[in-house]
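Note to self: keep these together.
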Amino acid sequence: MMDVVSRSDRQSAAEQLRQQIDAARMLLVTYHDVLDDDAQGRADAVEGETNLREAIQIGIVRIAEIKAMRAGIKSFMDSLKIRYDRLELQDENLRTAILIAMEVGEVHKLETPLGTVTRKAVPPSVVVTDESAIPAQFWRRSDPSLDRRALLDALRNLGKDERIPGAELSNGGTTVQIR
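Structure:
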């Protein structure tokens, strides 16, 4: 596999690919009359006169680097989420303990260097004990969302002259698969 070169010592993978794609296009335009329908000759000319294959390999290396960084960042974010949740629970527990201490000590207001703590009445809130028993008038209807999978299946199974208004199949395309 290729040596990984530091980013400061090389162009970005995307820029290298753009340059080599342009070089290959120019080469093929220049030698169009000579190579005509010779697919192997065109491929050999591009390989021999450009660094397109190397640029593609650099792109693949960069994709692997990006994949690894994304995995590392996601793992770090997951650990931060765990830490966040733990701190949120500590915050709730401390608030509850302070409230109990103020109630036991019959303290309504306490001024501290970091702020003033006050016991405050909270208005009643809803506690749902059986969601299925709540009458329909208290439910909101969610906005409809398009079932793209069902639409795709229906479009694929249409007859020659059948149509679904407002939708059609694209021409597809090509992609790269890296394993």
